[in-house]
Amino acid sequence: MSYEGWILLTGSLVGISCSIIGCFLILRKMAMLADAISHTVLLGIVAAFLISQSLDGAAMFIGALCAGLLTAFFVQLLSAKGVQSDAAIGVVFTFLFAVGVILLTLYGGNVHLDVNHALMGEITFVPLDIVQIGGVTLGPKAVWMLGFALVVNLLLIGLFYKEFKITSFDPQMAMSLGIPVLLIHYLQMGMLSMTTVASFDSVGAILVVAMLIVPPAAAYLLTEKLSHMLVISGLIGVLSAVSGYYAAVLMNISIAGAMASAAGVIFSLVFLFSPSQGYVIKLLVRRKSSQQLQEKRS
Questions:
Q1: What is the pLDDT of residue 16?
Q2: How far apart are the first and last CA of the chain?
């Protein structure tokens, strides 16, 4: 595959992996938790490096997974104690991310990890970090990590689709049916953490947050069925990645930033022109109804 092809594949995998787990966050009104975890995984990554003295992918996965679950646990704990959920997310997010930055500054100066790299990423370097086994080149490491995260997410969604669906729409009903709501919550947070760290090094936190929130939010305006929402959000994620890449090449700007901006543009178009929820469509329907009412009165 060409250099450009690997970048497009990486961006598309990020778009699909993040958007499908983001659908459940949108439905549960927990979108900002994605922002929190996508930043607090930095603490897990730094802690994993300090313990293992290695940037091996397995150590990074475990560290980020623990940091994501720790974030979800503290947010859940504060919420249960009466703290508003948005305030709980803000407190936990800023504290754990700040601790990660401090540890990175103190002990991570001699490695390629840094705050700017973590936030923005550099997808153009993805094709250079390849996996080789027995002298055979198998492609970029980021593609394998993202592919693994996507396969795991799809398997878990397939296995627990009913549980995910019920807990997303009606947690009280799920509890009455005997579904372990808290276990499902932490399972989803684990999926989110895994997906985030798989995307973290190649594209950075900004694009991860954009893909976790924007495509699912756009899909939410286009359909009322969860299965359709998952597919549509994945397609929007791919479209954002591809269109953003070519826009970045054309204007010579940040690829990750252009992909995130493309997702925002697509959401804006959906927000305005969605057949059922579009702002412009609602205005036209309202104006047509008003005209029909005036004609009846006259």
A1: 94
A2: 68
Q: What single-letter DSSP state applies at residue 262? A: H
List the chain domain ranges: 3-213
Whole-number pLDDT of residue 166? 92
SS3 state of residue 15: helix
Residues in the chain: 298
Q: Which residues, in sequence order, are CB contacts of 128 under 8 Å at separation 6+?
A: 140
CA angle 60, 61, 65 (to 5 degrees): 115
Rg (CA), the chain: 21
Per-residue CA distances from 96 to 62, 68, 105 (Å): 17, 10, 14
Instruction: Specify the CATH class of 3-213 in words.
Output: mainly alpha
Nearest to 89 by CA among 155, 8, 35, 132: 35
- pLDDT grade for 242, boundaries at 50, 70 and 90: very high
Separate counts of helices (H) and strands (E) for the chain:
12, 2
Tokens 């549980």 found at:
163
Q: How far apart are CA 245 and CA 91, in angstroms?
A: 35
